[in-house]
Design a protein that fits this description.
Elements lengths: L7 H15 L6 H13 L9 H10 L3 H14 L5 H16 L9 H12 L6 H15 L26 H22 L1
Length: 189
Amino acid sequence: MELIKMLGRTHMAVALAATALLTKDPSQLPINLAVAAASSLLPDIDTPGSMLRHKLNKYTGALTFPALIAAGYFLFKYKYFLLLSLILYLTYIGLAFIGPHRGFTHSLAGFLFFTFILFMSDRTILPPALIGYTTHLATDLFTPSGIPVLYPYNKSFKIPLVRTGSILDILIGLAFGLMFIAVLFQKFI
């Protein structure tokens, strides 16, 4: 059975609009937007067809998994990650690569694991990272495949309203993209 997921650009548009809406300090906006955008794509790291994996594969090819491990080491070396955070990050990436799509990374356990990694390291990026990850899970809840909130228990929770690439998916992405631009103009320009 093919799993139905939202388009990566829809995930990003929703996360960027929510982050812009919730960011109070204009000086924090660039980093908050970057973190929210990356976090909105992270749960789909478990599938080669995802926007994030596609971009990583473009630059690293078969070395995507080692590149993610090297990124964790970089975050540890430059004090963004503590040793415990590095170990947890490597575990998260490993579980994402060996598990099924819409498995661990789309569950409450994956969300809490991700939250704990950031809580143990750089708490300043925790709010936008949680916005990105949460909006990803929330939007996937509206697809026919849903999300396995209680993974490894395989029951998916879903409100099947949006199919990937459908006109509704595209319109949702467009609406949130326009909302993002409107919020930027209203709050920061």
